[in-house]
Amino acid sequence: MPYMRTLTPRQETFCQLIAEGIYTQTEAARRAGFAETSASAIGARMLNGSDYPHVIERIVELKEQRQRRYGVTMEGQLERLHQLSAGAEEAGQFSAAINAEKIRSALGGLTIDRRETINTLDQLSRDEITARLAKLAKEYPQAFALAKGMKDVTPNGDRTRGQAVALTQVEDAAQLDGDPD
Fold it and tell me: What is the mean pLDDT of each run of 10 residues along the chain (181 residues)?
């Protein structure tokens, strides 16, 4: 069923981006050319169904076109993944079966795959780590006083590289802080 009202070029772009299913309403509004500061509100208004019903109609139409063109539906994907999971399990390929089930649960909305990149010490240079440790030694002298008072009873041969580097860095930080030990 074709939509009745004419869409603006920005609304049409917004509809296409939403129909792709990979953008949030805010990101779709931004990419469609709406102002950064109001993209969230505009995206919400266009999808609420009452302010711009013609936008919703267009999104439904675009999704139906995609389904006809590619033959991909949520139900079809869930059914196919179930078949793959069952086949893999029958063949004793449990890893493949588990992977198919994980994808099914994500597709069904039961799980969310979220990843965060956290700044790790492995990505810092020795100088940056030493500077960070010196700063921490100044902010938390009681913690470093405890570390200085501990005796290392680990033989050098049993120390991992990470432990040896960490110990050296604590010593370096203490020296930078002006401690003679």
Answer: 73 93 91 94 92 92 84 74 87 87 78 72 80 84 69 58 53 54 49
Q: What is the CA radius of gyration of the chain?
A: 28
Burial class of residue 85, CB neighbours in 10 A (0-12, 13-18, 19+): buried
Supply the pLDDT for residue 3.
44
3-class SS letters over 78-97:
HHHHHHHHHHHHHCCCHHHH
Tokens for 17, please give them.
Answer: 């981006």
Q: Which residues of 88-113 are buried (b: 16+ CB within 10 A; e: fewer)?
A: beeeeeeeebeebbebbeeeeeeeee
- Measured from the Cβ of residue 6, the count of other Cβ atoms closer than 10 Å reads 8
User: pTM for this one?
Assistant: 0.42
Residues in contact with 28: Cβ distance below 8 Å, sequence separation at least 6, in sequence order? 14, 17, 18, 43
Query: How many whole angstroms separate alpha carbon 88 and alpha carbon 140?
Result: 54
